[in-house]
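INFO batch 0412 | record 1 of 1 | parsing
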Amino acid sequence: MRPKTHWRGLKPANHPRPLNLGMHNLYDRISEVALHNRDVWNQIHLDSRYDAQRLQVSRNPTTLLNLPPISRARGSQFQARIQVTPGTGFLGGTIVRVFKAADTPVDDLAFSPDGRAIAAYVKYQGVFLWNLEAAPLSRVPVDTNVDAESYCKGGLSFSSDGRSLAWLVEGARRIYDRDTRKTTSEKSFSTNKHIVQTPDGSRGISNHGLPDYRLIGWRLVDGMWVQTWAFSTADLQVESLTFSADGRLFAMLTRHALGEGWQNNPARVEVRDAATRMLRGTGEYPYKVRAQLLLFSPDGSQLVGLNAMNLLVWPIPEVGDLGAPRLVRNTTRKQFTAMAYHPSGRYLYVTSNGENTKDATVHVFDTTTWIRTEQFTWKLGNLKAVAVSPDGTLAAAGGERGDIVIWDVDL
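INFO prediction complete | emitting tokens
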């Protein structure tokens, strides 16, 4: 994977004109800096909120530039950094853009289909939206009334045309219209928090405990939720529900939950048909501790789980069981925290915690060999979320201190 040579929408690196920064021209504003490499400078994307005169630049092509805000009194919450990397072979990105979403963890991220906007759920703050081509970059509050206990992580998604943004909360699905800038709430198929839904919002599954102990499948028909199937989970513990990208399959982790010491019973992964709940296959799960997350590959041919420092990978056959998972260990010996597939399915982006919360890492694995092909280390504290744009050109990660980093990728 080789990073691109310029940020989306900017002039190529060999363009003869200086980069226009709105009211400010980079060449006019920085009098004390010798521009040693014009090709490098033409790659930089700056925000007019920042005082370019205060930049300090060295000849080191991988210098990390700190751009302090012009005025904190004006309420700016952004602290941007840009990593400049000419040429190829660097395991970072040609341009790295970091901005402050809030002071609390970024728990969920989603790109618009065209990659020109990104949305985030920030714990205790709400859902926010950024237009990545806007100058200056500013956050749009979408829903600041989302309780941290009611938000359903993993449910943040854009519509296919990118004009609306949806997310799940306890008892409802909320939709933000980017044209009218209004948020509406649709009654969910279940009033509890233990729900999952397909990205297009057409199917859902709810997991019910006392007194029902049932798993229920739902389908949206003419604006009404219709129950399509149900089965008893009275003797099971069910966790980590997830849909495949096309909504045809769902997976979950189960273990028998009867008798004393049931927590020590072996668990297994189940893959079922989403329309009928019929069992497609089961896979071994070698740990007592539950999987933090299960994720299907874009084509539904693989299922990946996280457990502490390990990735668990199951191939999904057309017929038959999944068998034992392939284990992929984190060589940094830190806990994996989130993951996202590249839309091609060829690469998996996985975040992990860092040493003393200072060097959290994004790993990129080739899903054919499960060899790590790239590694990005950001000074953002532990990372909580990761996303790849649907067109495969951008990736983003969110940290526990409210930072979001976005970088260009090229396959």
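INFO post-check: Helices lie at 26-29, 38-41.
INFO record closed
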